[in-house]
Amino acid sequence: MGSQVMRILACAIILATPVFLFVAENARAEASDDPLLLSVLLDQIEMRDAGADNTFSWVVEGWLGKDIDKFWFKADGEQTAGDTDEAEVSFLYSKAIARYWDLQVGVRHDFEPAAGRSWAAIGFKGTAPYFFDIDTAIFVGDSGRVAFRFGAEYELLITQRLVLTPDIEFNFYGQDDTEIGIGSGLSDVEAGLRLRYEIRRQFAPYIGVNWSKLFGKTADFSEVAGKGSSETQFVIGVRAWF
User: Fold this and answer.
1) CATH number where 164 lies
2) How much is the pTM?
3) Per the structure, how many domains does the chain have?
């Protein structure tokens, strides 16, 4: 997986630990029908075939809390040929505001491609009609930077063990960021289709395809740098939770 990825994940765990311990300590003596729970989801741990170079990609999230109030941790990124292309971590306070819907506020920190850049974050996470899982947020950074992200996922149960999962994510930016090759407006779209087999409910290997495309000035910046604006990758990975 590479020492750089390990350092990123280790840093995220170290930063999250004090928050988790604080909540656990304050809830330990409480006797209630609403117990303190912990959940961690390794949503996508996968290799992507990009032709000459393979890409390792990860999407990990977890939460600690009760029915109404939780602390969330989210991390995702990509590494190609030993170099980390993208990596970010978010720490969020989440509060249930309606059935199936949580309001989340907190911070996001980017390790790559813009090292050391942080954002304030506010968004919503929940289940829309017809059981679409939605995760959307607005990010506000320094120098007037604003970004918006929308993600959606759906799980189609083919059999009791075979599950087909389409997902899509859009990213929008309020201004050009030439340092990392981002243009204002719709920057990129990423969509995937993954078929997993649940050996156990908590552990499932999968195969699939992932498609990404850059738009507007982001595509122009990529082409100037000698890179393409669209990519289709076959993926193999594992999904697990505890």
Assistant:
1) 2.40.160.40
2) 0.84
3) 1
Lookup: tokens for 143: 């120098």
Domain holding 154, by residue range, is: 3-28+36-241
3-state SS, residue 23: helix
Query: Per-block average pLDDT, block size 10, for the chain (242 residues)?
Result: 50 51 48 83 92 85 96 95 91 96 97 88 96 97 94 97 98 93 96 98 97 96 90 96 94
**Cα-based angle 229, 119, 74 (whole degrees, multiple of 5):** 80
- Alpha helix (H) ranges present in the chain? 3-27, 216-224
pLDDT at 14: 52
Burial category of 211 from C-beta neighbours within 10 Å (exposed 0-12, middle 13-18, buried 19 and up): middle
Q: Strand runs (DSSP E) across the chain, as ranges?
A: 37-50, 53-65, 69-80, 83-98, 101-112, 117-128, 132-141, 146-153, 156-157, 162-173, 185-197, 203-214, 230-241
Which tokens belong to 140? 């506000």
Give residue 33's pLDDT: 77
